[in-house]
Design brief:
globular, three-stranded antiparallel sheet, 164 residues
Length: 164
């Protein structure tokens, strides 16, 4: 008999996400290893005692092999998503119900050659720059509302880079 997980008893994982933008205002997305279509922006947990900006740059380095980024903005409020039932209890060793995220907009200051997905613990196997309006269609459905909120909040940042 399988144990039922009480979603409401689980906390949210403290997390940072990075909307990494190139000089054309396009958004960096990467495809999770072993998935057919699970694209996402870089994101990850905030370690104990770590600041949001510090965590963001660390996550970029760990996930995409570079931390060449200039922070341009931060979401006014934390954004949450819940894991769907089929993932609850399976990811993050079953410790979290979802993530509570601070999102940062950052301008990529390197070149495409600086991006290296062959990190110590690879999470992604492909990456690309996409127009911001295409972003929600690439994201798994349970994360879409967060991505739409991030797009809306950073709309002026994205437009500013397009107009450079």
């Amino acid at each position: 008999m399988s144990k039922t997980i009480d979603r409401d008893s689980l906390p949210y994982r403290p997390c940072v996400g990075v909307m990494l933008l190139n000089d054309r205002g396009q958004v960096f997305v990467a495809k999770r290893c072993g998935s057919d279509d699970a694209w996402q922006m870089p994101q990850g947990g905030i370690d104990e005692g770590e600041g949001v900006h510090e965590a963001a740059l660390r996550e970029l380095k760990e996930e995409i092999g570079t931390d060449k980024a200039e922070i341009l903005g931060e979401t006014a409020e934390k954004l949450r998503y819940d894991l769907p039932d089929h993932l609850l209890g399976k990811v993050w060793k079953g410790r979290w119900r979802g993530q509570e995220q601070v999102w940062l907009a950052a301008r990529f200051t390197g070149t495409d050659a600086d991006i290296d997905l062959a990190t110590e613990h690879p999470e992604f196997d492909a990456w690309k720059w996409v127009d911001a309006d295409a972003l929600p269609t690439l994201i798994v459905p349970f994360k879409r509302p967060v991505y739409e909120a991030v797009l809306k909040e950073f709309e002026t940042v994205i437009k500013g880079l397009r107009g450079r």
